[in-house]
Automatic annotation (TrEMBL), chain A:
This is Non-structural maintenance of chromosomes element 3 homolog. One of its GO terms (biological process) is negative regulation of transcription by RNA polymerase II. GO terms for cellular component: nucleus. Residues 63-263 form the MAGE domain. Residues 1-60 are annotated as: Disordered. It comes from the Eukaryota.
TrEMBL record, chain B:
One of its GO terms (biological process) is DNA recombination. The keyword Metal-binding does not apply. It comes from Vicugna pacos. Pfam families: Nse4-Nse3_bdg, Nse4_C. GO terms for cellular component: chromosome, telomeric region; cytoplasm; nucleus; Smc5-Smc6 complex. This is Non-structural maintenance of chromosomes element 4. It is found in: Chromosome, Telomere; Cytoplasm; Nucleus. It comes from the Eukaryota. Residues 128-177 form the Nse4/EID protein Nse3/MAGE-binding domain. Residues 278-367 form the Non-structural maintenance of chromosome element 4 C-terminal domain. Residues 1-40 are annotated as: Disordered. Residues 1-12 have a biased composition (Basic and acidic residues). Component of the SMC5-SMC6 complex. Belongs to the NSE4 family. The gene is EID3.
Length: 282, 371
């Protein structure tokens, strides 16, 4: 079950087997409310009888089922890449198991890491929203295997992130459009691939927490600025973005000394032992 | 008293003068020690938002009594006007101020400083605070400008390099945009960039079940559709016969009428030959050689009866007979019959037909064929 995180391609064959094992006896593909209906008879009875259910002894099987549901829930919620709220988790999956919620979350996070290679991370400390990030480094050959993952927005995102970083961690919206115009992406014109680019950049990316979109005060006409969002800091780093930019230029990252120093400083800060970790125990 | 002690002990907050009414006897010794350095206040009125706010020491013992007088309304109004003017100017000349080369921000700050010396009321101080917020925002902008001057990142070059990276080589200085090219070029551009970008991000793959989520209805529908398609195909293959049938039907319509007329003619000929002699229904319609023709004959005769050219009724042996209806009789006889139109259903099976042929000893058909 445990394997050292290698390339993504290898890990792909594992999840199918593991998933079946992890589900236990529960209904595999059904809606995630099976355990509420299929709970142990005694447990159900006590739930209906009392107004506030006590944490009766829950069987190992019930726990397994709950954790499996939580894992499914997190995976599916992550499809849209919008951070998952703790309230949603409690409402849809955990329900009466609220008292052991931290344990459930920890178990689910473990399973996600061992089986899928995904890490469940809190977006910002005390924000009570979670995202999934990949623990495995991407590999060139995977691109062919990956197939159709929807519209290729990551390219556009990376370009915008590069712009933001290289211009000092903040860039005006007007500058972004000036740049993208030359790539055939206009805020008002429908794009062949991206549809509505303005909505994509100013709303979708912001909702997914890749970007921050703030109004610049005292401007007339109103202008906004972009910065990196919290998800970007988790999924990539300044050094990586700098290397992307450098690769495009076919140059060395050190050719931009200011940015290089900044990226280096961030790398060192990350290398220091972290205070936060994966799924929090709060 | 207790409150006053509290405010003394709390020391001087910025800009606030503590309220004190000193009565010698009430002071505990401890407190006297604490505030030894502070000179006991003799002022009884608290003045808010004192001018020299950056001077935190409580040493402003001698408050200028002129501040306590009602400040000149005119003066205050003019101060407020000047502040608003300053704020407006700064907002208008934003670009100039943010420009790193210019000193206009510093000048504006100095101007505000001068104005502030005359401020004694909260209203003007609020305007001053507003200006300070504006100035600091602009200062931040200016600082950002400084940063970008240092890091010399050329966006336009980045754009060109992107094209080269993807493999679109064209002349420099051509000023071309991606939209000048057709869609396939744009698609491949973004796909290449996507491929490179994803290798620098730790994105979790979007999760999908291989066979989709739990709804299985779509697959159930497919066999039904296929079945329909097959049936449809068969019908299409049968184009030729359908067409022929249509032709037959068309000709059949006229054929029916013709047949009816023909048979009517035969019937009337018989009636003329043998007047006042009804003919046995069965003898008339039955064709001993063909059952299908018999049925056709029955069909045609029913039209004759319906149109009123003949009448069918049961004779004394309770066998059906056909009687002629004269045109004269049509007027008289039909009145009672028109009130009560009768319907009769005749069913004839193959066995019945054989039996009738045998019983009535019909050797040849009365209704001869036209062909």
């Amino acid at each position: 079950m445990l394997q050292k995180p290698k390339s993504r391609g290898r890990a792909g064959s594992q999840p199918e087997r593991e998933r079946d094992g992890g589900r236990g006896g529960g209904g595999a593909e059904e809606a995630p409310s099976t355990s509420r209906g299929a709970g142990g008879a005694g447990w159900q009875g006590s739930r209906r009888a009392e107004a506030s259910p006590k944490a009766g002894p829950r069987s190992q099987k019930q726990l397994e089922l709950k954790v499996a549901e939580l894992v499914q829930f997190l995976l599916i919620k992550d499809q849209k890449k919008i951070p998952i709220k703790r309230a949603d988790i409690l409402k849809h999956v955990v329900g009466d198991y609220k008292d052991i919620f931290p344990d459930l979350l920890k178990l689910a996070a473990q399973r996600l890491e061992y089986v899928f290679g995904y890490r469940l991370v809190e977006l910002e400390p005390k924000s009570n929203t979670y995202i999934l990030i990949n623990t495995l480094e991407p590999v060139e050959e995977d691109a062919e295997v990956r197939g159709d993952q929807g519209t290729p927005t990551t390219g556009l995102l990376m370009i915008v992130l590069g712009l933001i970083f290289m211009k000092g961690n903040s860039i005006k919206e007007t500058e972004v459009w000036d740049f993208l115009r030359r790539l055939g992406v206009h805020p008002t014109k429908k794009h062949l691939i991206f549809g509505d680019p303005k909505k994509l950049i100013t709303e979708d990316f912001v909702r997914q927490r890749y970007l921050e979109y703030r109004r610049i005060p005292h401007t007339d006409p109103v202008d906004y600025e972009f910065q990196w969002g919290p998800r970007t800091n988790l999924e990539t780093s300044k050094m990586k973005v700098l290397k992307f930019v450098a690769k495009v230029h076919n140059q060395d990252p050190k050719d931009w000394p200011a940015q290089y120093c900044e990226a280096l400083a961030e790398e060192e800060a990350r290398a220091r032992p972290q205070t936060g970790g994966p799924a929090p125990s709060s | 008293m207790a409150d006053e002690k509290g405010s003394l002990r709390g020391d001087v907050e910025e800009g606030e003068e503590p309220v004190v009414a000193v009565t010698g006897s009430a002071y505990p010794g401890k407190q006297a020690e604490e505030e030894e350095e502070e000179e006991p206040m003799k002022v009884e009125v608290a003045v808010g938002a004192d001018a020299c706010s950056d001077d935190l020491s409580c040493g402003e013992a001698d408050i200028d009594p002129s501040l306590l007088e009602l400040a000149d309304e005119e003066k205050c109004r003019s101060i407020r006007k000047q502040y608003r003017q300053l704020i407006y100017n700064v907002q208008q000349n934003r670009d100039d101020i943010v420009n790193t080369a210019s000193d206009s921000l510093t000048e504006a700050l100095e101007e505000a400083n001068v104005l502030f010396d005359a401020v004694s009321r909260t209203r003007e101080a609020a305007l001053d605070a507003q200006f300070l917020v504006l100035a600091s925002d602009l200062g931040k902008e200016k600082a950002k400008q400084l940063n970008s001057d240092m890091s010399f990142f050329n966006q336009v070059a980045f754009c060109d390099f992107l094209f080269i990276f993807v493999g679109l080589n064209w002349m420099e200085g051509d000023g071309r945009e991606l939209s000048d090219y057709d869609d396939n070029v744009a698609l491949s551009f973004w796909e290449t960039v996507q491929k490179e970008a994803t290798s620098w991000m730790l994105q979790a793959e979007k999760f999908h079940f291989i066979f989709g989520s739990f709804k299985s209805e779509p697959s159930a529908r497919k066999p039904r559709l296929e079945h329909r398609k097959k049936v449809h195909k068969m019908e299409e293959n049968g184009d030729m016969p359908t067409k022929l049938r249509k032709l037959d039907l068309n000709s059949n319509q006229e054929a029916t009428e013709k047949e009816v007329e023909r048979i009517l003619g035969l019937l009337q000929t018989y009636f003329r030959k043998y007047p006042d002699t009804p003919v046995s229904y069965f003898e008339f319609v039955i064709d001993p050689n063909s059952f299908s023709r018999t049925v056709e004959n029955i069909f045609y005769v029913s039209f004759i009866i319906r149109d009123g050219f003949a009448r069918i009724r049961l004779d004394q042996d309770r066998l059906p007979i056909l009687e002629p209806i004269n045109i004269n009789q049509v007027g008289e006889g039909n009145d009672p019959s028109s009130h009560c139109r009768k319907q009769g259903v005749i069913s004839l099976s193959l066995q019945d037909w054989k039996n009738i042929v045998a019983t009535f000893e019909i050797s040849e058909a009365m209704i001869t064929n036209s062909y």
